[in-house]
Specification:
Blueprint (H helix, E strand, L loop, with lengths): L8 H22 L4 H16 L6 H12 L3 H7 L8 H15 L8 E4 L2 E4 L5 H5 L1 H40 L4 H13 L5 H13 L2 H7 L8 E5 L5 H15 L13 E6 L2 H11 L3 E5 L10 E7 L7 H14 E12 L5 H16 L12 H10 L3 E2 L4 E2 L8 E7 L4
Parallel strand pairs: 3-4, 3-6, 4-5, 6-7
Antiparallel strand pairs: 1-2, 7-10, 8-10, 9-10
Helix pairs in contact: 2-3, 2-4, 2-7, 3-4, 5-7, 8-9, 8-11
Length: 410
């Protein structure tokens, strides 16, 4: 039997090209990521977009953004203020500003010639090319446009650059947090730029991941089992934290990430593959249904935003199996919505319904419980749960709570 032929070089070149392209887009997306530099990119892009050098905006953005050390991609996006829809109004405003600065009367849509008023839009070709028209309107309009574009560009750049800086500075996180977010998001680049962007957004806006990493005591050894892990975001965050610890870049004021054996279970094959690519052998990811999957013994179990997808009976059966899989002294961290939280709970229901419709799961049903009902259920399976659930929806309109429970040591 002949051995299989080696893969064609073209396929390898194509994969390398895609990887290089993703890396380039990632650098363009993340360069100059501080609030000041992002505000500078917006201001520079708006100023360039106001200039009448149409057709040269892209090279101008690349050149000037590189010289100023700001994000080239965001500079070019901001320069799109001169879109075909906005450009006529922008040019008219710039010409008016130029005429105002040189003391000329504001632009009129009518022109007086030989004692009568003539609509400027219905001049004949002879009128258009007449040297007096060129002198009176052509050069003056060009001067007005150049001067006015500089003035309008400076004003727009100053206003929107300042607004951008204030908005970004308000939501800015500590440098050590931003570093971990970027290192974790970069792991997902192999699965696609959109996956990386999704993970970056989750880590920035969902408080549960850093709360578990920094505030909630994880086991110091053994297996950490993430049930319904999705893309494996927390596992990837923990792996990135351990890498930073090994390089000496992990914050000294934080508790060091424990050397746990990472294991995730996810029933959606596409997301399970994304998690595998992001963790690259640092965690084992199984593709299986939690309702029937075998749960190995674990020192820690995560159930983050999973249980409400199951029926009440399925929730109870899964929690019973989790309690049995937990080793003595093992920890369970459960996050779900608090059905007693009023309008914030309704926000959770609306968001989950929209997400299920976008995934094509038209008949998806949800089963929510009150926070005290979750606590009572955990205690019924022999787990020692905290007396209160910790709110875990800060910065969002959602009524999520995080519950910590442990299996008592005999």
């Amino acid at each position: 039997m002949q051995p299989e032929p080696p893969p064609r070089p073209a396929a390898g070149r194509w994969e390398r090209f895609k990887k290089s392209l993703r890396e380039l887009l990632y650098r363009l997306r993340t360069e100059g990521d501080s609030p000041a530099r992002q505000a500078g990119a917006v201001a520079l892009g708006l100023f360039i977009g106001c200039t009448p050098f149409y057709g040269l905006h892209l090279p101008l953005c690349i050149l000037l953004a590189r010289l100023c050390g700001v994000n080239r991609l965001k500079t070019y996006i901001a320069a799109h203020i001169s879109t075909p829809v906005v450009m006529p109004f922008l040019v008219f405003t710039e010409i008016q500003a130029g005429r105002l600065l040189r003391g000329a009367p504001l632009l009129s849509f009518q022109h007086r010639r030989m004692g009568r008023r003539v609509d400027v839009w219905h001049w004949s070709s002879a009128d258009f090319w007449h040297w007096r028209w060129l002198k009176e309107f052509g050069w003056h309009w060009l001067t007005d446009l150049l001067v006015g574009s500089a003035v309008v560009g400076i004003v727009l750049a100053a206003v929107f650059g300042l607004l951008t800086y204030l908005l970004l500075q308000r939501g800015r996180r500590a440098p050590e947090v931003e570093s971990l977010i970027e290192e974790t998001a970069h792991r997902y680049l192999a699965a696609g730029l959109m996956q990386s962007e999704f993970v970056r957004g989750k880590l920035r806006h969902d408080p549960v991941y850093f709360s578990i990493l920094r505030r909630w005591a994880l086991p110091v050894r053994g297996r950490l089992l993430d049930l319904g892990c999705g893309r494996g975001i927390f596992l990837a965050l923990l792996a990135a934290a351990r890498q930073q610890l090994g390089r000496g870049a992990y914050p000294a004021s934080w508790e060091p990430p424990p050397p746990l054996e990472l294991h995730g279970i996810e029933h959606r094959p596409k997301l399970a593959e994304v998690a595998r690519r992001a963790l690259a052998g640092e965690a084992s990811i199984d593709c299986a249904d939690l309702r029937s999957a075998a749960l190995p013994p674990a020192r820690g179990v995560l159930l983050l935003d999973v249980l409400h997808y199951l029926s009440a009976a399925e929730q109870e059966r899964l929690l019973a199996r989790v309690a049995a899989a937990l080793e003595p002294g093992g920890i369970l961290l459960l996050r779900d919505a608090d059905a007693a939280a009023g309008w914030r709970f309704q926000a959770v229901r609306v968001a989950e319904r929209i997400n299920s419709l976008l995934r094509g799961q038209w008949r998806q049903r949800f089963r929510y419980r009150r926070a005290d009902a979750w606590l009572q259920l955990l205690r019924s399976f022999g787990l020692k749960a905290d007396t209160e659930a910790e709110p875990m929806g800060q910065g969002t309109p959602y009524a999520n709570v995080l519950i910590r429970a442990s299996r008592p040591v005999p």
